[in-house]
Amino acid sequence: MIKPDAVKAGNIGNILQMINAAGFRIVAMKYTHLTMDTAGKFYEVHKERPFYGELCEFMSSGPIVAAILEKENAVADFRTLIGATNPANAEEGTIRKKYATSIGENAVHGSDSDENAIIEGNFFFNGLERF
Ligand code: GDP
Question: Domain extents for the chain?
């Protein structure tokens, strides 16, 4: 996902360009707006974390871009491309180093496992929306 902060800042194109340049193929893509309820479902694994409410408020604060990306070793390579959760700790040249402003408003989401990538892809896309 490209998160609401990066969409608001006009960075959809810049981020997609970095994703393309890193060799990911776009399988599905959608511009949409999560509600508190749908953001809460997407981030349900974090519901016991102290920042859960703040995270859901932020993720429903504006439109997002959701995508399914394909590549060998996609999960690990995408996490390398986006950088650390906190942009203060992100490597130079990563998406979060360039475009994130804080640990909460950190520009992009990436799945943390192949299993979660399937669950998260199914959250946004049906079979007719994948190419
Ligand atoms: P990620 O896999 O790098 O996105 O990081 P996590 O799975 O640990 O956290 C999920 C998301 O929750 C992050 O991308 C942030 O948007 C948010 N988040 C994580 N830690 C904090 C925090 O301490 N404060 C706030 N406000 N949000 C956080």
Answer: 4-129
Q: 97-117 pLDDT, tens per residue?
A: 999 999 999 999 999 999 999
From ligand 1's centre to the CA of 102, what distance in Å?
Answer: 10
- pLDDT for 29 equals 98
CATH architecture of 4-129: 2-Layer Sandwich (3.30)
Question: Regarding beta strands 25-32 and 64-70, do their DSSP bridges make them parallel or antiparallel, or are they unpaired?
Answer: antiparallel
pLDDT tens profile 6-34: 999 999 999 999 999 999 999 999 999 99
Q: Which residues contact 130 (CB under 8 A, 6 or more apart)?
A: 27, 28, 68
Nearest of 12, 10, 32 to residue 108 by alpha carbon: 12
Ligand 1 proximity of 69 Cβ (cutoff 6 Å)? no
Active site residue 33: no
